[in-house]
Amino acid sequence: MNTKTMTTLLRVVLLAAAVLCGIFFLWFLPSYGQEVQQADPEFTWAYWPCLIWAWLFALPIFGAMLPCWRIFGSISAPEGAFTRRNARDMRSISRLAFADALIFPAGMFVLAFMGAGSAPLTIIITPMVIFCCAAVGIVCYVLSRLIGDAAALREENGPANVTMANLSILKTGKAKAVRVETLNKLCHALDCQPGDLLEYRPDEEA
Q1: Is 36 exposed, middle or buried (0-12, 13-18, 19+ CB in 10 A)?
Q2: Distance, CA of 162 to CA of 152 (rounded, Å)
């Protein structure tokens, strides 16, 4: 599977997730709330507080989709996925996940204080949501650090974008062959000609 195919597949999955989340938060939850209103009129007052709480929880989810879209697109970009911009995007996703880890229990606390809390929702679902959001936040933060370190390493290798291993082989003269693409990058980065880098040495006689 090439990088363009991976980018396309990931973006299709992301779009599908956005559609499903939109249906859930913008259609299913309001419809379900109206059914609850009809079944239990005494909870009519809780319709809008619950809906606003759900939409506040949805905001970080939708907000994380934009940096995800950029990260997926970078997979097939010439500079690759290990860039400082992707590291920043992963940190943004991490912050949004941690935000949801706070929004959900805060909403549950407010609703419980107002008399619309649910024991199963508070005892079982709330810890699960907090754990999932916090886990996503931690994973994304760690990935942001790894991507940032990889981007810094690439910058240390210079504008030629040649790996440290290849540079070491070239420096010690152990290279058996040099790709034209690598030679072109080195000449471009050093502003020189191939003859400035290569030296002819006749094979030693047996």
Answers
A1: middle
A2: 13
Rounded to an integer, what distance in angstroms lies between the CA atom of residue 163 and that of residue 182? Answer: 10
pTM over 0.85: no
pLDDT averaged over 10-residue windows placed end to end, the chain, 206 residues: 90 97 96 88 85 95 96 87 92 97 91 72 85 97 94 67 63 72 76 78 60
How far apart, in Å, are the Cα atoms of 166 and each of 153, 157, 183, 198? 14, 10, 12, 15
Show the DSSP H helices in 115-197 as ranges: 119-120, 126-156, 164-172, 180-190, 194-197
DSSP 8-state code for residue 122: I
CB-based contact 29:51 (threshold 8 Å):
yes
**Where do we find the tokens 């191939």?**
194
Phi and psi, residue 200, nearest 5°: -80, 130
Alpha-carbon distance 118 to 66, whole Å? Answer: 33
Q: Which residue has the tokens 């030693």?
A: 204
CA-CA distance, 144 to 68, in Å (whole number)?
12
Contact 13, 68 (CB under 8 A): no
**Residue recorded with tokens 């992301």:** 14
What's the rounded Cα separation, in Å, for the pair 46 and 36? 10
Structural contact between residues 171 and 158, judged by C-beta atoms closer than 8 angstroms: no
Output the CA–CA distances (angstroms, integers) from residue 63 to 20, 70, 99, 101, 124, in the order listed.
15, 12, 11, 15, 26
Q: What is the DSSP letter of 75?
A: T
